[in-house]
Amino acid sequence: MAEMREPTFLILTALADQPRHGYGIIQEVDTLSASRVALLPGTLYTALDRLAAQGLVERDRDEVAEGRLRRYYRLTDNGLKVLDAEAARLRQLATVAEARLRAVRPRTA
Fold first, then answer.
1. Which domains does the chain have, with CATH numbers?
2. 97/79 Cα distance (integer angstroms)
3. What is the rounded distance in angstroms from the CA atom of residue 99 to the CA atom of residue 101?
């Protein structure tokens, strides 16, 4: 899989611990990103369709709440593997950056 864009990474991360409906994903992405990434519903559902076609997410269940249909999504086993691999890739990059920053920071006595 190609390098993952941040909104995709955050959507998968939002689904890592439990199934969520669309608005729940939007809220969780907002929390995870400290409000830096604000997903619009159209953007989210386009991304969910793409991720489902890639086999990374799937519909979990539908329920009606307050007269509205809520469709829940969850990660597939492959989605968990892909998220784990992307988290490892980002962690490795961060480790390299931190090592280089430590090397150029002035040393304090």
1. 6-103 (1.10.10.10)
2. 27
3. 5
Tokens, residue 59: 């519909």
Whether pTM > 0.85 for this model: the answer is: yes
Q: What is the DSSP letter of 22?
A: H
Q: Which residues contact 54 (CB under 8 A, 6 or more apart)?
A: 1
Helix (H) / strand (E) element for 50: namely helix 41-53
- 32 is written with which tokens? 């995870």
Q: Look up residue 74 and give its amino acid.
A: R
The per-residue pLDDT for range 13-52, each reduced to its tens digit, is 999 999 999 999 999 999 999 999 999 999 999 999 999 9
Contact of 15 with 7, CB cutoff 8 Å: no
Residue length, the chain?
Answer: 109
Specify the pairing of strand 57-65 against strand 20-21. unpaired
